[in-house]
Amino acid sequence: MDALLATLTLVALIAVSGASSTCCKNGWLPYKGSCYYFFDENLLNWNDALTFCKNKDAELVTVETANENRFLVHFAGKLFRNTTHSRVNTMFWLGASDDDIEGIWKWVATDEELNFENWDVSNNQPSSIHDNHEDCLVIKGEYDFMWHDVECDAEHGFPLCEMQGTSTGGTNPLSAIG
Ligand SMILES: [Ca+2]
Ligand SMILES: [Ca+2]
Predict the structure, then answer these.
(1) Among 94, 99, 135, 92, residue whose Cα is nearest residue 117
(2) Where do the H-state alpha helices sit in the chain?
(3) How far is CA 147 from CA 21, 23, 65, 123, in A?
(4) Which ligand is nearest to the Cα of residue 119, counting in written order?
(5) How far is the CA of 148 from the centre of ligand 2 (A)?
(6) What ligand is nearest to the CA atom of residue 136?
(7) Which ligand is nearest to the Cα of residue 146, counting in written order?
(8) Of the candidates 4, 11, 2, which has an alpha carbon nearest to the alpha carbon of residue 172?
(9) What is the CA(86)–ligand 2 centre distance, in A?
(10) pLDDT tens digit string along 41-87?
(11) Most buried residue among 33, 53, 70, 127 by CB atoms closer than 10 A?
């Protein structure tokens, strides 16, 4: 009985102490309830990046807040300091497009219009050049990972995936005991 009580207390303590933390699969970075995966091996076009994330049960990232954007920019920058990819040539695809209606940007994961934006306005982004065919969203290392619209079939971005994390605080302590 004492052992069971000790186990219950321990499990409850773990549950309480982890109330606000996010659990992610190996290789994924937790941030405020989501898990993020920066895949920096193959350069893909936007559609292939979308498929890449879906194959990992995730979506191309949806950026809802300035804080989330800061987190992504921070890690995008960190990732390339010691690799062969230069910061200048590094782009990550984000999960938004204005392919349906020119100028109306939507997140593909939610079909909702952007409620936060970080366009590189000092470089006239979104620029919609190339006959309005710049329909996909990237963060570009060359421009401090500010948002740019580029052509979707450009095969020079890395996928940046997001999935819901699991919260350690949400589990019933008793369910952990077989
Ligand atoms: Ca998000
Ligand atoms: Ca552009």
Answers:
(1) 94
(2) 2-17, 46-54, 66-79, 129-132
(3) 29, 28, 14, 10
(4) 2
(5) 5
(6) 2
(7) 2
(8) 11
(9) 20
(10) 889 999 999 999 999 999 999 999 999 999 999 999 887 655 555 66
(11) 53
Cα separation, 39 vs 155, in Å, equals: 14
**Distance in Å, CA 10 to ligand 1 centroid:** 32
How is residue 20 written in tokens? 């606000």
Nearest of 56, 55, 51, 64 to residue 26 by alpha carbon: 56
CA 75 to ligand 2 centroid distance, Å: 23
Q: Any idea which ligand is nearest the CA of 135?
A: 2
Q: b/e per residue, 92-126, with b = 16+ CB within 10 A?
A: bbbbbbbeeeeeebbbbbeeeebeebbbbeeeebb
Q: What does the pLDDT look like over 2-22, one tens digit per residue? A: 544 444 444 333 334 434 689
Gap between the Cα atoms of 134 and 131, Å rounded = 8
**Pairwise CA distance, residues 96 & 116, whole Å:** 12
For residue 84, give the 3-state DSSP assignment. coil
CA of 153 to the centre of ligand 1 (A): 23
Rounded to two decimals, the pTM is 0.79
